[in-house]
Amino acid sequence: MYRKKISSISILILFFFVFSIFPMESVHAATSISVPEALTVVPAVPSKVIVDKAGWSVVQLTSSSTSLAIGCNVYRSDAKDGTYALLGKATKANNDYHYKDTNLTAHKNYFYKFAAFNYIGESQKTAAVKVTTKKVIHKPSTPIGLTLNSIVASAGIYKVRIDWTYTYGATSYNVYRSTSERGAFIKIGTSTNGLYIDSNSGAANAMYYYKVSAVNVSGESALSEVIPAKLTATFRAVPTGLSVNSQAAINLSWAIVTGSTGYNVYRAAKVDYAYSKIGTSTNVTYKDTKAAVGVEYLYKVSSIDENGESLKSTEVTGKLADSSVTVLSEAVKDLEYKYESKDKLKLTWDALKNATSYNIYKSLYKDMKYTYVGSTNKNKYVDEKSVDSATYYYKVVAVNAGGESSKVNPLTVGAKVVLKRQMENIDRGINAVKAANGVLVSWRLLGTEAQDLEFDVYRDNVKINSKPIKSSTNYLDAKGTTTSKYYVRTIGGKSKESQSETVTAWENNYKELPIRKPAAGINKAGEIYDYTANDASVADLDGDGKYEIVLNWAPTNAKDNSQAGYTGNTYIDAYKLDGTFMWRIDLGKNIRSGAHYTDIMVYDFDGDGKAELTTRTADGTIDGEGNIIGDEDKDYSNAKGYILDGPEYHTMFEGATGKALDTQAYEPQRGAFATDINEWGDTYGNRGDRFIASVAYLDGKTPSVVMQRGYYTRMAIVAYGFKKGKFVKQWTFDSQFDEVDPNGLKYTEYRGQGNHNVSVGDVDADGMDEIITGAAVINQDGKALYTTKLGHGDAMHFGDLDPTNPGLEIYQVQEEKGSPYGMDIRDAGTGKILFGVKSGIDTGRGLSADIDPNYIGEEIWAIDGAWNSSTGGLYSVKGEKISEGIPSSNFAIWWDGDLQRELLDHNWNGYGGPASPGTISKWDYVNKKSVNILTATGTNSNNGTKGNPCLQADLFGDWREEVIWRTEDSSALRIYATSDVTETKLPTLMHDPIYRLGVAFQNTGYNQPPHTSYYLGSGMKTPPQPNITISRGGTEVKIK
């Protein structure tokens, strides 16, 4: 560039020139800054302008910085090609320019341009950026779902609690009351949650009627439907004295309930405890005329009054059988089956001469508990609740007046179809990493491809392998350099030959991606906080076949739920794998920051080939296009920094843009969050504000998002599909429900049976996923399956941990000091404990991984003291104690060339100390010690002593895993990949159903490493091809 010396006269002329074209406030600092000699040209035009926020009266924008600029002017117009007026100067922070425009008109188009300036002059203006301010919020819709929760009487005062479903857009609710259903309703109070408690001194047995309206800045909705309440000290009294008399029929009787208008009668077969309502009665007796002979039943009764239905009574047992008649000693013969339709299975058999009827039972396990299906007096039966993707075992038992036959022959009914899961369409994922003796090139074998698919490798357009590569998906190029360019081609096979994209070898064993650190802030208490990159997830957000990274930014004042204090906002960013920034979501001031508040589920929920993101949101959340959810001006934090009031939302965001697609009221709701300690275990926002989320294929074909609230006491879970751009609620599980599981345990027994994490998978081999909360499993239909009752835990691992045990296993550590086990492994389908060790302490860490080839299956271990304890006992999956010493207990990773897993951890340097870089070690099973093989110098681990990376997953290359850590200053992410050769050929782990879901919910609570649905370790067998399809909505294939 041509340069010239600037004289003092020239500088004076320059200053007069600058002040003549710029307002004084735009260059107010000019007189105190000397002009650099090289500054002789105007700056370049800013390359990008981003809309950070578009409210109804405010717009926030960010412009990229440019070389030679000392500032940036902002212009606005009402038309794209209109006259642009100067608004002022943008503020510089983190190398970007930011501007906030206020006092705007709602729902109006504005156009903005930025221009960089220096002492020479102003650059050209950027292209116009259109911003539409938000529409004024409409009045909320009328509240629905009003229920009368309780009436409590004390010293003549009645407390009436009513609940309702949150209304989207409502910031508060007005509650109205009347003494007659059609009378005048008077406002008696307000609420910011979905409940209200009315304390009044009305007369006993008086009737009150309630209605609720929703309110926001635009007004009040219409009043809801009415809900009546009768003031009584015996609210929904439960019947007592239930008894049974079984003769020709089963006759029930119970004590009268004062004030009752009727009773509901429920029945279940004792083998499965599946209660259903069988009738009603207006008196205190009931005759069950439809009970099948020989079946042992359970009965319960509830009362009904003006306030609704009571809980069910204690149960009694009844069975129709004549003890004077000898039961049959024959089994039915020639039992056959035929599927009449998808869910209808017809059973036929030869009739027995002396049988009067037949009872039908079925099970998913041949030698486990059978459930009662039904009874018939014919030699055929149609089961209309069969699932043709599962293998069942049926028993048809012959019956006479004496009861059921003593002999029975089970029938195996094989699955008719295989459910194939909708899975993302990812590309070959070729990667090249500089190794000690060349370049390691690796690529994916997709889950839909044949195991014997062959490949050729090309460097700089020249094939470099002498013969087709068939036994692996990696190749060490001894002549490769960091300037070499590689691609691979498939050879033959049933599918069309294809070529991957071309990639250049990494210069190191990691790739660094620049990221945009949010600006530091000051909270309401005047405390300064900064930001660090935290948990991450991956998915194909834009449909290009490559993963993008979704990153959670945590403020340095993030809190555990047990800690008071204000936090900064939580931000969620999206980046492409080359570091390109895509969008940012600001969860806003009404989502508290901390490990248990925000779960980010990133997945292709609607099957369109592009992933979405869903998480909990609130008033003031800003989507990736700057649109504000709810009321941006509301702040619900209390004096201790907790957020116990105000609406909670659940939003689905578009992956490519971060745009909010659908927002609904969040469920499970808070309930009596801050008033009733029995609801969540405390009233200050600790246990009731702990969230868990996961992705599950509840129908075996398409993904759902599953949201959970609470696990220390009450545990509530809601599942949603996402269809045609809208959430579709599928089911709710709640430990407060008046129900029982198949083993006869009340749902209240599921209180406290959740972990700080979750697992998901098909535990019962029906093709559909169950939710593993920790010590409990919830079936795909939202019904409780079983609980071990071992309580809450901090770590859990799920997969085929023991290949000698049929099915899948769950390894868990327990927090309860009085638990019979501090660590235990169980059969995932039945809950049977296979092996356990009592610790007598809060066992806070435990891990399962194959680290010793001398033992088949994974090894399991747990700490016996502090988080970094080096003792506690290393065991085989069968319970054989290998050593007292243990490896680290945080994460495990498939990294080097063998089938064992390595240990992923960090060099912990304490809170507030130097960075704690990530590490990978290998367990020396001969000398029983860990040997470091990687220290990621310059990185930092996340979440204190947990030491987890941002993410661990099979991101690209062959089946082995990559790991993402943040740099010490959170200016970048580093993706580390192995440079070791492996001779093992496996499909990408991201096409394994359990592993892929494990990556999706890895960021939930206390992060855990993902596991596979098959045993991956020494002595493994070739895994079956995963049942997946790269088609929208999944599919099913008939079994020939």
From TrEMBL:
<dbReference type="Pfam" id="PF21348">
    <property type="entry name" value="RGL11_C"/>
</dbReference>
<dbReference type="InterPro" id="IPR041624">
    <property type="entry name" value="RGI_lyase"/>
</dbReference>
<dbReference type="InterPro" id="IPR049366">
    <property type="entry name" value="RGL11_C"/>
</dbReference>
<dbReference type="InterPro" id="IPR034641">
    <property type="entry name" value="RGL11"/>
</dbReference>
<dbReference type="InterPro" id="IPR003961">
    <property type="entry name" value="FN3_dom"/>
</dbReference>
<dbReference type="InterPro" id="IPR013783">
    <property type="entry name" value="Ig-like_fold"/>
</dbReference>
<dbReference type="InterPro" id="IPR036116">
    <property type="entry name" value="FN3_sf"/>
</dbReference>
<dbReference type="Pfam" id="PF18370">
    <property type="entry name" value="RGI_lyase"/>
</dbReference>
<dbReference type="InterPro" id="IPR028994">
    <property type="entry name" value="Integrin_alpha_N"/>
</dbReference>
<feature type="domain" description="Fibronectin type-III">
    <location>
        <begin position="331"/>
        <end position="418"/>
    </location>
</feature>
<protein>
    <recommendedName>
        <fullName>Fibronectin type-III domain-containing protein</fullName>
    </recommendedName>
</protein>
